[in-house]
Amino acid sequence: MWNIIQSLWSSLALFLSALFFHGMILRSIRENKPKWFINNHQHHIIRYFIGMYYGVLGLYFIWRGLPGEDFGIYTDMLINIIILLNIFSGTGPATIATSMIIIGKLLLGHDPHMQLIYAFFLLSYHFICIQVNTLKISLVKKFILSKLSITPFMLYYLHFKMAIPLQVYTIPKWLLIFTISFVCSLLLYLAARFIDTSNKQIFELRQSSIHDPLTKLANYRHFDTCLRNEYKESIFKQTPLSVIIFDY
């Protein structure tokens, strides 16, 4: 059990680090390239890169879970990737990450039969999360429904991988595992929601400060910001700067 707890904290810490690193990258892009989140084509490219980013994280979890008994904990982190991407990023990034995870399981796993069953459950769970995400309910309820829907898979899969019999006397152990799993997923959900909400609020505040809320046209602050940036660039490149102002 101590090995499980140790692998739990290491995988949880890595996931949280990946979340905050993801948040910092998006915040930097929102500040330097805000049009990328307005243009649909560029926005889709960003979302697909997010799916690939968490797909690589999933491959790392698969690799870390191969040798020892802590496999179930890392498996739980793969489930969290599918949940969070479906809730916060949408179907496209979640599908990319799920596909990468399934391919990784089939290539890295030792038992082909077990890996096929695992891939089937993962794909089915991804479709369940897609359907849950279409419901007109709060994000918290979507998270809870998505997390509860994985219970049959956990009972089936962890029964073999962690050698826990499905008997009455093992109920306390199962409850402990499910509690740990839910608490970890909840922490990741809260962290992802905080990062997503704060980044969007900062972006909206920045946009409202440089655009008129009624006409959506650029105001004086937008002009001042553009002029300052051009002035800094002209000094850096040692090139002349010309400004033409049309006042209506």
UniProtKB/TrEMBL annotation:
The chain crosses the membrane at residues 7-25, 45-66, 78-103, 115-132, 144-162, 174-192. It comes from the Bacteria. InterPro entries: Rev_trsase/Diguanyl_cyclase. Keywords: Membrane, Transmembrane, Transmembrane helix. The keyword Chaperone does not apply. The keyword Protein transport does not apply. This is Uncharacterized protein. It comes from Listeria fleischmannii FSL S10-1203.
